[in-house]
Amino acid sequence: METSAPYQRLTDRKRVAIVGAAIEEFLAAGFGATSMDRIAARANVSKRTVYNHFPSKEALFAAILQQMWDACQDGDAPSYRAGEPLRAQLLELLERKLRLLHDESFLSLARVAIAAGIHSPERARDMVARMGEREEDLAAWVRAAAADGRIKTDDPAFAALQLQALVKGFAFWPQVAMGQMPLGAAEQKRIAEAAADMFLARYA
């Protein structure tokens, strides 16, 4: 037991190094131009070590997507609560979402996934579908509020997408696509409040 633990830690460190190197290579060269040789060199491990952890570049990319997915899991989102003020509930959800969108590791992984998805529609569809599942908490809240008669819409899914767009237009796409700095806490709060107020002015 004592001898296996250090070995396991070394193996884990190598895996982390490989994933980190792959992210850097995918960002620098794109999915198509990135090779397992380049990843091994950047991670300072042998190519055989890379293949011991990941049988193919596709499997390595899938692991990165899984890491992005796992990074999204921040506990259960608060559910709709009948009788409580809508604005306070919505702000709680939006501020939670903004914290995720400004996690640097999440942004790096999103850049990798989106860049690779441009060259492979199949990868893009998988990524969008999984991200859509992650954003279900906001859609579920809108559906519940609409069912309770407090949000007036015949299409809760469309309304939820509008709300997502209000946030992502300031707090995701500029950072992912244009390299803008993540927003500070005050600016995140301002965006959450403005998005909530615009949404409720239209639908409440």
UniProtKB/TrEMBL annotation:
The keyword DNA-binding applies. Residues 12-72 form the HTH tetR-type domain. Residues 35-54 bind DNA. It comes from the Bacteria. Keywords: DNA-binding, Repressor, Transcription, Transcription regulation. Coiled coil: none annotated. Signal peptide: none annotated. InterPro entries: DNA-bd_HTH_TetR-type_CS, Homeodomain-like_sf, HTH-type_TetR-like_transc_reg, HTH_TetR, Tet_transcr_reg_TetR-rel_C_sf, TetR_C_Proteobacteria. PANTHER family: HTH-TYPE TRANSCRIPTIONAL REGULATOR RUTR, TRANSCRIPTIONAL REGULATOR TETR FAMILY. This is TetR/AcrR family transcriptional regulator. It comes from Paraburkholderia translucens.
